Amino acid sequence: MASEPSHPPTGPKAFQSTRPLSAADSSWPSSGAFAAARDTESPGPSSRSFGDFSEFLRASVADEESLQMGESLQDLAAQIESIAEAWRLPHPDGSWLAPGLLALLEALREHHRMLLDLNRDWDRFIEFKAHLASLNQFRTHVTQWAGVVQQPGAQPPALSEFDVSAWRMLGAGALLLDVYEQSSKVQGTDAAAPSSAWSRLMVWIRNED
Fold it and tell me: What phi-psi label fits residue 98: left (phi over 0), alpha (psi between -120 and 50 degrees) or beta?
C-alpha cells in the first residue's frame, strides 16, 4: 500500500498522519469507504455523513457489552457532524470554531476514559490499540486547531483535514466493535449467524442512494 504523502510544515494544517497499527490494516477496506479517509485528504466516505454514522450505530449495536462503546461513538459522531455542518458555512475567521472544538475535545477525553475503563476482553485486541491510537491522534489535532483558531484573525484548517482525522477515529472504533462482537459470538455461532457490525457498516457506507 502506498504511503501517505508528506506535508510541509505550514502552520495549523501541518500534522503528522499515523495509521492504525499495521496488524489491523488487513481488515481495513482497501478502496472506498474509510480507505478514502485513511489514505487521502478527501472528505469522509461517499455521500454519508457523521450523523448517518451515528444513526447506523444506534440501529446496529445490540450486544449489551458493546452498547456503551456504541453509544459513545454515536455521541462523538453527532458532535462531529454538528461542527462539520457549521464549518461549511462562510465565516470571517476561525474564532467561531473554538467553542465547538473545545467541547469536542472534552467529549474525546470522556471517550478515552471510557475505553480505559472497559474490561480486559477489549484491550486484548490489536484493534483496541488501533482505535486508541487514532483517538489520541484526533485529540492532538483538535487541541492544535482549537489553539490556532483562538488567535485573532486566524483561519481554521481545511474541513477535509477534520473529516479525515475524524473518520479515521470513528472507523477504527467501528472495527473494534466488530471484532468484539465476533469474539462474543464464537460459541454457538453457525453459518447462518448475522453478519458482523463491520460487514454491515461497509455495506451501509457503499449503499449510496
Answer: alpha
pLDDT for the residue numbered 130: 96
Contact 85, 98 (CB under 8 A): no
Rg for the chain (alpha carbons), in Å? Answer: 17
pLDDT at position 190 is 45
Q: Are 39 and 2 in contact (CB under 8 A)?
A: yes
Angle made by CA atoms 171, 7, 3, in degrees to the nearest 5: 55
Residue 93: partners with Cβ closer than 8 Å, 6 or more residues away:
149, 152, 153, 154, 155
d(CA 179, CA 128): 9
Domain boundaries, given as residue ranges, for the chain: 50-186+195-205
| DSSP designation for 22 | G
- Extract the residue ranges of the chain whose pLDDT is less than 50: 1-47, 62, 187-188, 190-194, 203-206, 208-209
Which triple of cell numbers denotes residue 7? 506535508
Q: What is the pTM of this model?
A: 0.64
pLDDT at position 56: 55
> Percent helix, strand, coil in the chain (nearest 5)?
65, 0, 35
Residue 58 backbone dihedrals phi, psi, to 5 degrees: -60, -35
Residue appearing with cell numbers 462503546: 69
